[in-house]
Automatic annotation (TrEMBL):
GO function term, MF aspect, one: histidine-tRNA ligase activity
InterPro entries, per database record: aa-tRNA-synth_II (IPR006195), aa-tRNA-synth_II/BPL/LPL (IPR045864), Anticodon-bd (IPR004154), Anticodon-bd_dom_sf (IPR036621), His-tRNA-ligase (IPR015807), HisRS-like_core (IPR041715), HisRS/HisZ (IPR004516), HisRS_anticodon (IPR033656)
Domain Aminoacyl-transfer RNA synthetases class-II family profile: 1-400
Keyword Metal-binding annotated: no
Family: Belongs to the class-II aminoacyl-tRNA synthetase family.
Location in the cell: Cytoplasm
This enzyme's EC code(s): 6.1.1.21
Protein name in UniProt: Histidine--tRNA ligase
Subunit structure and binding partners: Homodimer.
Superkingdom per UniProt: Bacteria
Amino acid sequence: MAQKPSIPKGTRDFSPAEVAKRNYIIQNIRDQFQKFGFQPIETPSFENSDTLMGKYGEEGDRLIFKILNSGDFLKKADQQAYEAKDSLKITSSISEKALRYDLTVPFARYVVQHRNELEFPFKRYQIQPVWRADRPQKGRFREFFQCDADVVGSTSLWQEVEFVQLYDAVFTALGLKGVTIKINNRKVLSGFAEVIGESDKLIDFTVALDKLDKIGEDGVKKEMQEKGISSEAIQKIQRVFDLKGNFAEKIEVLKDILSTSEVGKRGIEELEFINNAVEELGLETAGLDLDVTLARGLNYYTGAIYEVAAPEGVQMGSIGGGGRYDDLTGIFGMKDVSGVGISFGLDRIYLVLEELDLFPETVSKNIEVLFINFGEKESLYCLKAVKALRKAGVAAELYPDEAKMKKQMTHANRRDIPFVVMAGKEEMDFQKFTLKNMRSGDQFTVSQQELVEKLK
């Protein structure tokens, strides 16, 4: 008995209707990217392992899908590591390539390799799949698309302002009102660590703080203490746990907390600049909020940090995120190139639009007319009309098999095709067609030209 086929956990097949909806989201995102002046690029699905490893932190490295070397990969394996069954040490000798984890690091590699061909500042967008060896759950997959936009070669904070507007423009175009664009700044987080005298534990501190909404204040404090941060140090930033109010009110509290930290004060100034500009320009449907617990991507973000939350009431992780990276290309030998970028989580956006019933009915565009197959001569006669309809922009097709009329009509009903055309000997003799409206049941006898006019 043949084995029942399956697909790997965390991956999915997509039906025609699902692909149409995904394409609708992608097209809306692409349209806005282009309006904002971004240019498209594409990079390979897999990169050299040393391009990716060490760029996402220890947890990120564990989630990178490694590709085994082709051929007898064990022949060149680190024998000592192999005998010790040390999977971490043996990996580099049996796997030289890996599936890309995100689009940002491959983009940095692209910029460095093509620097002599690019005009800076360089604005690029990229819409491609990425892979992560994560535990699959709702809204989290092992294969998923990212839709990224980045600017490299500019330190201007106007870029950060533009990205807030870009998020707003995309979600407005998708009809997804009420998203929250959360923003923080790496310098503010560095300021917290400096104020409590734990600058060397910045990553431990911020990783714990980032979990505030998941494990609560007590849980965060416990994790910090487990990482060697004292209760006295934590007490110095107690007000961070209770930070409430609008953007400006939160900024005032931060100014007081970070009054002794120069780096922290620079972060506050940057956040103020972005907020003031956004308030002046206005947002259509999104909101901007300061979230000091936001600590994503700390291994390469150096300034602004973004994360987008779905509208209130929708249980979903972030549907977008990004930030400023002043030294990302430096890891590939290209120093002093600042960049900032954001990403849209296509799959999660899809789930949110589905949950809120925000996909337009016209998204899953179907065949508009099916021609019934009565035989070889009739089919050739019909295909001339099919060709004319397609040329006029009407989606049309001929049923391929000379099957019973009932079967062909049932096929049209199951595919929800609104019109059926029939042409037998009588219609052919008079150069006519019988057009049937499958929803109303009405029938008309028309010429080919009239058929095109009616269905255009």
